[in-house]
Amino acid sequence: MPKDRFAENPYPDLEVSTEERHQLIDLVNGFVEEHFQTYEDFVRVDNRRVNERRWKHFKSKDDLHVYEDRRSSDSGKSMESWNPETSQDNAVPSKKDTPVMLRFGTAVGHLDDLMFGVVNPTLDTMRIKASYVHDLDGGAILCPVLEPTEEEPFRSLIIKWMTIDAPLKSTSLVKVRDFVYIEATGILRFANGDRVGYQLLHSIEFPNTKPRPNVIRANLSYFSFFRQIEENVVDVFGTSTVAPGGDVMRFISVRVATEALLSATDLVFCGQMKKLSWMLQHQHSMDRQTQRNENCVMCNKQTTSGADSARAHASCAMVACASRARSEGASPLSPSTAS
């Protein structure tokens, strides 16, 4: 993915007050608690079975299945972005025929790898995630509210902007859509102690994030939950609603919401590649510091303390790292990227 799609920040002056930060944290906590209960009921009460009288199967990928709410086309309701000036916490009536999509199934891998792929609180990690998951076309970090810590490495709350690769966007039939939204991630627990990872994306507006010329502001609400249910098997559950704005065909809303839900199949691989890149980078740094008078760990040649030898074996390590990364399809990770 071209880096210049992530080089532009259309709202570089966005700041939030302490009061707005508290409002955002409370808003996210409320959303997460509500949808977390929905997921726990789906597991404990519904035994992970979909009510097909309400939900119609739409698309599957691997062992992930997306369903469309049969009632959404008749609800007459849509969702709008949250605005700190009005403190509206919930979706409100706006436009008819906004599809609501449900996803459930499993992904191969481990929860920690998957969550490492989910968390992207910096521009570097946002770009890397997009290169594997293909969930957005371009984007920017507008304002961090909560960032990961050593104690809570998967917890984050970041205000972001993005554009998506919508169907027919390259033609004159569909204008570019963009989103200003909050993205929150973290770990919760079921009553029985099971760890559950979550990811939330929900539209938000500020006075200084008005849509740019020739761009239509769209709204979204997206939730995902992830839980290890067997060795190398992660349970995946989530919902997605996209209101693209303007006069646009319904299938585009359905397509965008569905692709967002199915992108979860790539999250484990994304997390593994981020870890591989980080490990290779740090191993190379340690090698340069500690292996001046030992055999090179990459080519096993005897090293010396001379500058020429040091340069040669540093080059060897870099070539090996690049070769390994290419064989795995790894994206470059900058030295500052840690999560």
From TrEMBL:
PANTHER family per UniProt: FYVE-FINGER-CONTAINING RAB5 EFFECTOR PROTEIN RABENOSYN-5-RELATED, RABENOSYN-5
Start and end residues of each stretch annotated as Disordered: 69-96
Organism the protein comes from: Phytophthora fragariae
InterPro entries on file: Rab4/Rab5_effector (IPR052727), START-like_dom_sf (IPR023393)
Protein name: START domain-containing protein
Composition skew (Polar residues), residue ranges: 75-91
Coiled coil regions, renumbered to chain: none
